[in-house]
Amino acid sequence: MERFAKVLNGMGFNDAAHRLLTDPSVKTPEQFHPVKAWIEYINRLFGVLSGLFALIYFVIMLRYRKLIAGKRWSILGLFFLLLNGWLGSLVVATNLLPGVVTLHFLISFFCLFAYMVSMHKAKPFFFEHTEILSTKKWFGVWVCVFVVLILGAWSREQVDQMRLAGRLYVDADETAFLGWGMLDVFSMDWLFSLHRYVPFLILGWMLWLIGKEPKTQDSNGFISKLKKPLWVISMICILQIALGVIHIWFVIPSWTQVCHVVVGSALITYIFAVYLSTLSKQPKTS
User: Fold this and answer.
1) What is the pLDDT along the chain (286 residues), one digit of tens a residue?
2) pLDDT given for residue 208 in this prediction
3) Which residues, 6+ apart, have CB-to-CB distance to 234 below 8 Å?
4) What does each C-alpha distance from 25 to 95, 99, 164 come to in angstroms?
5) What gap in Å lies between CA 51 and CA 192, rounded to an integer?
6) Rounded to 5 degrees, what angle do the CA atoms 184, 188, 190 make?
7) Nearest to 274 by CA among 286, 283, 263, 262
8) pTM for this model (two decimals)
9) Three-state SS sequence of the chain
10) Is the dihedral of CA 262, 267, 271, 277 positive or negative?
């Protein structure tokens, strides 16, 4: 624990490191809960499957001598996967210690991005209608959304602390007991405000760019729009914003929490794939 606390201090998670060494609840065994037990079991099964597929992918990459760059990224992805497996064991051992959970969540994306680059090196991704933005601007969109994702992970930790303190609701009265009320967003810091409002800016920019696109007669209608990254990103943003509103007004129902994470992960993954596709196409700058 002391060694891991030093690692957390070195990465800037000072509060988590201090709590790891001083909070006795970190070492207190959790009471058995069947639903949580099954979720943890399924998570471990997927972790094992991910490790097996990663090893198979690594062996396949070794057979192709020409894909040197792809091999390097696959090695990096395997490293992040093993690192995240180790962190996962610490998440369980420390009873979901704040900071450790967020780090575990974020490193999973580093692993994903590394494998996506490796796959792109082997066979480049291709998306149509990306020319409206340059490669640098697509990279900027990805960075912006990834920052929003990090802020979301930080906001989740704030909510966890609010839940432990018994102050999730704006007015802690009988409505809180019934599970009805508004999340106390006013007590959260400015980082949550960024997480809350930046998606509106991204959505507004996407819609503005859609308005700049030349009008064409499309017989496929809505289906053809699904081939355009701007439309896909806009629709995912709208869905994610709607889930965020439900989070606030219904105080984070479990099903929306899962959907919010899944949809946000899909968004950042899709944007990264679009960005990679522009590296090989070299689209015109807008």
Assistant:
1) 566 666 666 666 666 666 666 666 656 656 666 777 787 788 888 888 988 988 888 888 777 765 666 788 888 999 999 988 888 877 776 666 667 788 888 999 999 999 999 889 888 888 888 888 999 999 999 999 999 999 998 888 888 888 877 777 776 554 444 455 678 888 888 889 999 999 999 999 999 998 887 776 665 666 677 778 999 999 999 999 999 999 888 888 888 888 999 999 999 999 999 999 998 765 444 4
2) 93
3) 203, 206, 207, 210
4) 8, 15, 12
5) 34
6) 140
7) 283
8) 0.81
9) CHHHHHHHHHCCCHHHHHHHHHCHHHHCCCCCCHHHHHHHHHHHHHHHHHHHHHHHHHHHHHCCCCCHHHHHHHHHHHHHHHHHHHHHHHHHHCCCCCCHHHHHHHHHHHHHHHHHHHHHHHCCCCCCCCCCCCHHHHHHHHHHHHHHHHHHHHHHHHHHHHHHHCCCECCCCHHHHCCCCCECHHHCCHHHHHHHHHHHHHHHHHHHHHHHCCCCCCCCCHHHHCCCHHHHHHHHHHHHHHHHHHHHHCCCCHHHHHHHHHHHHHHHHHHHHHHHHHHHHCCCCC
10) positive
Tally of CA atoms within 13 A in the half-sphere of 25 that contains its CB:
8
Contact residues for 92 (Cβ-Cβ < 8 A; gap 6+): 40
Q: Report the length, in residues, of the chain.
A: 286
